[in-house]
Amino acid sequence: MRGGHDLELVHVTKRYAGGAVAVADVSHLFRAGSYVCLLGPSGCGKSSTLRMIAGHEAITEGSILLSGKDVSALPPAQRGTAMMFQSYALFPHLSVAENVAFSLKMKGVDKAARMRRAGEMLELVDMTALAARLPAQLSGGQQQRVALARALITDPQVLLLDEPLSALDPFLRIRMRAELKRLQRELGISFIHVTHGQDEALALADEIVVMNSARIEQAGSARDVFNAPQTEFVARFMGGHNVLALPQGRFAIRADAVRLAAQGAEAVVTSVEFQGAHVALTARAAGDQDILALIPEEQFFADPKSPGDAVRLAWDEGRLHRLSA
Ligand code: ADP
Ligand code: MG
Q: Domain ABC transporter: where (predicted)?
């Protein structure tokens, strides 16, 4: 239902007591049914933005609309949003099923109905077999599934997730990533997922919103943001790019679009790193510009280079993206 449950931030500002501006005049439309990642370095205002959407933090200026209705003044439970916290915040003395059913108990839903609904939610996250356990008897990944079920039982239109994968080991993180994506598709609701990891955002997001210093730096599809960063900050933060100062201005170019060639910019190799499918070769060119080239490993080892070697670097002009800042 396009437009049905769009979430819109309209000139939203958050100023904490003491004067720090955590979110500065941010406007953005989060489309219904999309997986959006809010991406940016620590301290850029991601959690503040999420907490304002959830209603856990007051908005200093601006408003938040869900389905066109201003929800800025509503308490969290009445907004149509639900938040999954980084720490999961499960009640230690309640069973898994009781944790999941908790918010329905608060709403006065009778026991049979809320336990039935909790059962459905546990099935959704594949935790039916562990319904009677206490949180302390679960692994980190299992606790996270319970936290998800608990957030989803309120039937939110928008699920808010603040660094949901950061406590997991790398293997589990990738598995849970796929789970989150599957859940979002199955439920058809919007997920707004805060992360400081660009690989996580690329893997999950229909749309990436890059934040920097309390503002939105760039928003777009994962491919657009990665392939065509508009600012030096985005190019550097997404990684895998070079920022080149050329006579015509500043440009970004993907590191895998830079190759060793017979003709091209002169440079001296400064480091060589084997990365599996690619070799990351860094070379210093005129003006002390360090340029990173990701070279397919077979190609590299056909004519390997070492630090100190003189090389020439080339790229297609069409791969350069002009930076606006
Ligand atoms: P992120 O989630 O991107 O790391 P936050 O939204 O947590 O960023 O923080 C943004 C800025 O607001 C930071 O400078 C942080 O120190 C400040 N901040 C966050 N919460 C509070 C608070 N409760 N009181 C005062 N300053 C805060
Ligand atoms: Mg945060």
A: 7-238
